[in-house]
């Protein structure tokens, strides 16, 4: 699988010592077929540590269904750049890890 994002991923520069990206944006840019709620815990199995490699964020998403306003709690994660540089795109392949660079390298 070749990785080439057509849209840049927003980088959070609030702490220049610890740049972060949205887990949901990264998930979308990688075109992962697994739902985010299932994908992120699987990524944590690689040893990512909360408050070191990522921080969970709770957001409220609001949209309309007909005339009714619907609110939904959505979990995202601010992922530090070092762990978001390299992801195993094909996590089901145990024998070989396919590396994906955010720079767009194949």
Structure description:
With 106 residues, the chain is of the alpha+beta class. It has a domain at 11-48 and 78-101. Helix content is 19%, strand content 34%. The protein has helices at residues 23-29, 36-44, 81-84; strands at 11-12, 20-22, 54-65, 68-80, 86-88, 99-101. A four-stranded antiparallel sheet has the order 1-2-4-3. The longest helix has 9 residues, at 36-44. The model is unreliable at 83-106 (pLDDT under 50).
Q: Count up the helices.
A: 3
Mean of residue pLDDT values: 75
What is the terminal-to-terminal distance? 8 Å
Instruction: Characterize the overall form.
Output: globular
Global structural class: alpha+beta
Task: Estimate the helix proportion, in percent.
Answer: 10-25%
Strand content: 25-35%
Compile the SSE list and pairings.
Blueprint: E1 11-12, E2 20-22, H1 23-29, H2 36-44, E3 54-65, E4 68-80, H3 81-84, E5 86-88, E6 99-101
